């Protein structure tokens, strides 16, 4: 048996749950940092004696890092869902790459004109809708939880008539209005993307507009500006009729990349819900947007672009066992500019950072606005994932690397009352393979100097996404 790669620790299941566990702090966490970093991701990969085949299929486990007076306390808890209860019985439920995936049920829907049953394994992201803290995934069954104890409260449901069969877990909060904007896909004739907004006080959802889906495409994220919502429909399409194939396993088996199709930039007016523009550019794939804004008559959009969709297969456990962090395709930070009101928009594309990166974030305050800095996981060095701060105005970057340290998604938290965009800290969970445990890293957001590290009592599987919620 070959010796496993050191980062394989980040794909091992955990059994123990910690409740408000104080973490030792090496260095100093600023006293002004008060609130909680809530993160989501897989925590368990084995069901019924079999291991999941893809990173995306682990059982959802929430993580909470609570900050007050320079100290940090840690809680982790599995979501108690139908998928979790089935797993305790040794039964595999709907998944991304294995088992009866959510699109397997589309066959029943096509025959019975009823919606497909989908998984409630909400392991991708977290959001707050009104007074509700919610764990999200790309299936439309989201789960409410207690933001302090992480205890599961049950399925989160809206009472409107909006039908979504797949949905984004990347909802975006507009700092001007407080509303949350998202979208989902409804299969039908035709297939349609539905764009919606959630009221910050009542958590009521309203439809902004609907757009015909071509493919339909697998769209993971969206961009938000003052006036527009932008969906990037890449050539990675969902072959719905693959649900008929008896040897298919999950959604992964139903994805097809058609690089002769090009990538469609869908611009929806937030006020009227109408399609403003949908220019098609040379093919590329993207998971994650960075930010977007309007300047004069131009729409400016930053995202992590891949040459094709091979990154999706590269995240399977079969490939990860072959050192995927060194061999996987690299995402690049690209900026797109165009006038969406032009009859035939001329789209320009420029690269803003030459290194590989993923899991980009910006602070909530600069969402939808012209901004300068983005933070992300840097991915182009063997034996580590780093942290990068990109200066989008200058096209330069500051990087931090630690030998044997695999940084996850960073979150920049601004200092209360700060004037400068990068006055604050960056919170970055990471796996320290030398210590064989996870650690929370705290950086100065301006310089990326390491201010503090707080080792966890165990090694936590690599997670996906999270948000910081300030106290008060």
Structural descriptors:
472 residues; Methylamine Dehydrogenase, Chain H; mainly beta; 37 strands; 5-stranded antiparallel β-sheet; 5 helices; 6-stranded antiparallel β-sheet
- State the CATH class: Mainly Beta
The third-level CATH topology is Methylamine Dehydrogenase, Chain H
- Spatial shape: globular
In quaternary terms, these chains amount to single chain
Helix content: under 10%
How many structural domains does the protein architecture include? 1
* Number of E-type strands: 37
The major pleated sheet works out as:
6 strands, antiparallel
Tell me what the CATH architecture is: 7 Propeller
**DSSP strand (E) fraction?**
35-45%
Number of helices: 5
Rg, nearest Å: 21 Å
List segments where confidence is low: pLDDT < 50 over at least 5 consecutive residues.
99-116
In round numbers, the mean pLDDT is 90
End-to-end separation = 53 Å
Structural class: mainly beta
């Amino acid at each position: 048996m070959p010796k496993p790669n050191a980062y394989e620790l980040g794909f091992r299941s955990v059994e123990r749950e910690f409740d408000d566990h104080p973490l030792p702090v090496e260095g100093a966490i600023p006293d002004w940092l008060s609130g909680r970093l809530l993160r989501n991701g897989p925590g368990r990969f084995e069901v019924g004696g079999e291991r999941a085949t893809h990173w995306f299929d682990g059982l959802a486990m929430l993580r909470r890092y609570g900050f007050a007076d320079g100290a940090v306390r840690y809680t982790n808890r599995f979501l108690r869902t139908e998928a979790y209860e089935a797993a305790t019985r040794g039964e595999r439920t709907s998944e991304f790459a294995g088992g009866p995936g959510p699109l397997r049920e589309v066959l029943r829907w096509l025959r019975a004109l009823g919606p497909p049953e989908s998984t409630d394994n909400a392991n991708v992201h977290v959001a707050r809708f009104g007074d509700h803290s919610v764990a999200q995934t790309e299936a439309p069954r989201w789960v409410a939880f207690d933001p302090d104890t992480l205890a599961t409260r049950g399925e989160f449901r809206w009472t409107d008539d909006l039908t979504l069969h797949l949905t984004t877990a990347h909802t975006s909060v507009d700092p001007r209005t407080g509303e949350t904007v998202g979208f989902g896909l409804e299969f039908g004739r035709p297939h349609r993307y539905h764009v919606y907004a959630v009221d910050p006080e009542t958590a009521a959802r309203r439809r902004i507009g609907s757009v015909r889906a071509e493919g339909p495409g697998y769209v993971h994220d969206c961009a938000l500006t003052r006036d527009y919502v932008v969906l990037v429909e890449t050539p990675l399409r969902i072959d719905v009729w693959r649900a008929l194939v008896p040897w298919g396993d999950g959604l992964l088996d139903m994805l097809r990349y058609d690089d002769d199709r090009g990538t469609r930039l869908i611009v929806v007016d937030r006020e009227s819900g109408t399609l403003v523009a949908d220019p098609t550019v040379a093919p590329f794939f993207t998971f994650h947007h960075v930010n977007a804004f309007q300047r004069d008559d131009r729409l400016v959009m930053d995202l992590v672009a891949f040459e094709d969709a091979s990154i999706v297969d590269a995240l399977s456990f079969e490939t990860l066992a072959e050192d995927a962090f060194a061999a996987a395709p690299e995402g690049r930070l690209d900026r797109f500019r165009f006038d969406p009101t032009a009859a035939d928009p001329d789209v320009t594309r420029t690269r803003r950072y030459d290194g590989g990166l993923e899991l980009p974030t910006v602070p909530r305050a600069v969402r939808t606005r012209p901004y300068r800095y983005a933070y992300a996981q840097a991915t182009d060095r063997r034996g580590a994932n780093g942290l990068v701060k990109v200066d989008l105005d200058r096209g330069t970057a500051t990087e931090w690397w630690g030998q044997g340290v695999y940084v996850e998604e960073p979150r920049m938290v601004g200092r209360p009352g700060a004037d400068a965009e990068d006055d604050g800290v960056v919170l970055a969970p990471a796996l320290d393979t030398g210590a064989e445990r996870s650690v929370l890293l705290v950086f100065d957001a301006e310089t990326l100097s390491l201010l503090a590290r707080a080792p966890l009592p165990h090694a936590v599987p690599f997670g996906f996404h999270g948000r910081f919620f300030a106290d008060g």
